[in-house]
């Protein structure tokens, strides 16, 4: 019996620590949380298994309580100020805005303010030369998963059913490769064969998509771009909080499902958090070292597109060339709104002098437009008064990117321009010993939040044809669905029929 007992004790895993035997949480973390009125983060410490305690301690140690308090106070303060100024929050927020009308056209159809063919050719030439000189980098925003498409993989891994069988990531990589080859012809003497120009590709992932995204590129040989010229960096996150500012504890497994053999990612125990919005691009570029890498390799300009836009042309030469020629720090592609009720953000000009002299660029989300603004129609053209829609395709100088990271942050020089997104947050209730959903706030930044810091003469809005530049892939194919893979595939094949191989199909 003794021999048997000895054998069992040697092979069996040790029992979970009882509350009385659990080591206390790190004193410095408890003190920091208490000073920030967040002591509840350790209320369930004795209920956690070792892996969960390790995760909790790690995540709390990375929390910047002071910055979180600043971000939340600023977001709630902006809401309160708007609501106290007017019965309509949106009307108060958008008072003093007018439609942005200074738009140059990059459309062959002459959509918007037409530019002559000679000018467009000069811009394209300038854009190709900028790429040839190694001064251009491309960023693809790819933090989302394909849940609405019926896929658990990163959205960029999704195949929309093209004959070539490539993914959305593959489409963008192919276009960067095609740009490199076109730009090579702008180096050296006429007729001289040149190596493809260097245009590095930067992919902004999220915690949910990072590993699979890196694996997808590796499995596909980095789509011919070369591993050394593809850089992955993660989008930042923000803790989810209650209306009172309490950090929300995330859901976790309990009982038999929670074992020391299970990875901490599976068993929970951390805090609830969410991505910090596409405006987190600026700080992520700086904190990850991506911006330093761009500049060290010669890039001075960056073209940003979203992974789910099947028609996006990363580094489009005419667009880049127009922005460089005009000395723009910020450039935006825009499409004409099709109808007043279309739910898209619009470009507007801030006219209030107290904001810095007026004339600054604003993007008003559809949800932020009051009905009068959203439905207003130009009496002459019968088209929407706010005529130009934002489709998140942007040009930036690297200098602007660096300044924007500081401008939007919570530091001494930052404006902490976070927005409150009120959601039901998955959480763990200590009192109920169960996973529940609680009302909470996700703090987000929008990429255009930094635009109003740029003088009007440093901004360029370029009109592009919708069927040439914008085909979002957001919803699974269904009879009544919009923004589907089938619609994007049809639009892409139609563009190919019009333009041939010129843009890298």
Write up what this structure looks like:
This protein is of the alpha/beta class. It has one domain: Spore Coat Polysaccharide Biosynthesis Protein SpsA, Chain A. Helices cover 32% and strands 18% of the residues. The chain has an eight-stranded mixed sheet, sandwiched between helices. It has a three-stranded antiparallel sheet with strand order 1-10-11, with no helix packed on it. Helix 7 links the parallel strand 3 and strand 4. Helix 6 crosses helix 7 (168-184) and helix 6 (117-132) crosses helix 12. The longest helix has 21 residues, at 65-85. The chain is globular and about 80 Å long. It starts with a helix and ends in a 6-residue tail after the last helix. Mean pLDDT is 87; it is low at 1-20, 85-90 and 109-114.
What labels would you give this structure?
505 residues, Spore Coat Polysaccharide Biosynthesis Protein SpsA, Chain A, 16 helices, globular, alpha/beta, disordered N terminus, eight-stranded mixed β-sheet
Brief write-up:
This protein is an alpha/beta fold and 505 residues long. The chain has helices at 2-11, 27-35, 50-61, 65-85, 89-94, 117-132, 168-184, 210-219, 264-267, 281-287, 290-296, 317-325, 371-375, 398-407, 466-469, 485-499, and strands at residues 97-99, 103-105, 136-141, 200-205, 230-234, 237-239, 273-275, 301-306, 330-336, 346-350, 360-364, 388-397, 419-429, 434-444, 459-463.
- Largest beta sheet, briefly? 8 strands, mixed
Number of domains: 1
Silhouette = globular
**What structural class should be given to the helix and strand makeup?**
alpha/beta
Fraction of helical residues: 25-40%
CATH class: Alpha Beta
Task: Quickly count the helices.
Answer: 16
Number of strands: 15
Q: Compute the gyration radius: what is it? A: 26 Å
Question: In CATH terms, what is the architecture?
Answer: Alpha-Beta Complex
Task: Return the average pLDDT rounded to an integer.
Answer: 87
CATH level 4 superfamily: Spore Coat Polysaccharide Biosynthesis Protein SpsA, Chain A
Strand content: 15-25%
Low-pLDDT residue intervals, each spanning 5 or more residues: 1-20, 85-90, 109-114
First CA to last CA: what distance? Answer: 74 Å
Instruction: Kindly identify the CATH topology.
Output: Spore Coat Polysaccharide Biosynthesis Protein SpsA, Chain A
Strand order, largest beta sheet:
2-15-9-12-8-3-4-5
């Amino acid at each position: 019996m003794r021999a048997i007992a000895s054998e069992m004790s040697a092979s069996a895993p040790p029992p979970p620590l009882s509350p009385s035997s659990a080591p206390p949480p790190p004193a410095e973390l408890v003190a920091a949380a208490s000073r920030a009125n967040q002591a509840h983060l350790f209320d369930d410490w004795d209920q956690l298994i070792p892996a969960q305690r390790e995760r909790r301690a790690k995540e709390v140690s990375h929390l910047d309580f002071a910055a979180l308090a600043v971000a939340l106070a600023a977001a709630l303060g902006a809401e309160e100020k708007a609501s106290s100024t007017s019965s309509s929050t949106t009307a108060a927020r958008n008072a003093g805005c007018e439609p942005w009308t200074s738009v140059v056209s990059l459309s062959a159809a002459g959509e918007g303010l037409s530019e002559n063919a000679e000018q467009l050719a000069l811009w394209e030439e300038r854009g190709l030369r900028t790429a040839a000189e190694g001064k251009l980098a491309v960023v693809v925003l790819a933090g989302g998963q394909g849940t609405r498409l019926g896929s658990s993989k990163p959205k960029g891994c999704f195949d929309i059913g093209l004959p070539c069988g490539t993914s959305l990531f593959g489409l963008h990589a192919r276009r960067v490769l095609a740009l490199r080859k076109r730009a090579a012809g702008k180096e050296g003497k006429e007729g001289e064969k040149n190596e493809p120009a260097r245009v590095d590709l930067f992919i902004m992932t999220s915690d949910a998509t990072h590993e699979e995204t890196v694996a997808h590129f590796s499995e596909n040989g980095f789509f011919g771009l070369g591993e050394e010229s593809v850089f992955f960096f993660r989008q930042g996150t923000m803790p989810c909080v209650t209306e009172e500012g309490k950090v929300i504890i995330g859901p976790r497994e309990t009982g038999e499902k929670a074992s020391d053999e299970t990875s901490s990612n599976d068993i929970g125990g951390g805090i609830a958090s969410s991505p910090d919005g596409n405006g987190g691009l600026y700080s992520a570029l700086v904190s990850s070292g991506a911006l330093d890498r761009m500049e060290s390799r010669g890039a001075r300009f960056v073209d940003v597109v979203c992974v789910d836009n099947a028609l996006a042309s990363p580094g489009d030469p005419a667009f880049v060339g127009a922005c460089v020629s005009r000395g723009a720090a910020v450039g935006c592609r825009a499409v004409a709104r099709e109808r007043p009720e279309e739910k898209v953000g619009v470009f507007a000009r801030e006219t209030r002098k107290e904001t810095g002299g007026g004339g600054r660029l604003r993007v008003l989300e559809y949800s932020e437009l009051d009905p009068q603004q959203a439905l207003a129609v130009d009496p002459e053209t019968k088209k929407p008064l706010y005529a130009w829609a934002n489709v998140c395709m942007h040009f930036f100088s690297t200098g602007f990117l660096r300044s924007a990271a500081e401008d939007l942050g919570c530091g001494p020089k930052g404006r902490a321009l976070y927005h409150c997104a009120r959601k039901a947050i998955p959480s763990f209730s200590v009192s109920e010993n169960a996973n529940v959903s609680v009302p909470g706030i996700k703090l987000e930044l929008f990429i255009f939040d930094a635009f109003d810091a740029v003088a009007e003469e440093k901004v360029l809005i370029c009109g592009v044809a919708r069927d040439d530049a914008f085909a979002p892939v957001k919803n699974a194919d269904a009879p009544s669905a919009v923004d589907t893979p089938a619609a994007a595939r049809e639009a892409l094949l139609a563009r190919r029929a019009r333009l041939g191989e010129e843009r890298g199909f």
